[in-house]
UniProtKB/TrEMBL annotation:
This is Ferrous iron transport protein A. Residues 1-72 form the Ferrous iron transporter FeoA-like domain. InterPro entries: Fe-transptr_FeoA-like, FeoA-like, FeoA_core_dom, Transcriptional_repressor_C. The keyword Transport does not apply. SMART domains: FeoA. The lineage of its organism: Bacteria, Bacillati, Bacillota, Clostridia, Lachnospirales. Keywords: Iron.
Length: 75
């Protein structure tokens, strides 16, 4: 499933970053790699997704969130 389709308050594990190379490198520099745990905090009307990664909150755009494949983690 895509990160954009995830539920608020749920944790996911990144399976694949299916984005352009420059965006993938930027996300990896922020700590968003394959296997990283990501929690969805909120979703905005404009499509932005607020996530928590390794104790830090990030806002990512709709198109970026649609390019991140994740799987659900049981809490």
């Amino acid at each position: 499933m895509r990160l954009y389709d995830g539920a608020i308050g749920q944790s996911y594990q990144v399976v694949d970053l299916g984005l352009e190379d420059n965006i993938t490198r930027r996300l990896e520099s922020l700590g968003i790699n394959e296997g990283t745990r990501v929690e969805i905090f909120n979703k905005k009307r404009n499509g932005a997704v607020i996530i928590k990664v390794r104790g830090t909150r990030w806002a990512i755009g709709k198109q970026v969130a649609k390019g991140i494949d994740v799987k659900e983690i049981a809490q």
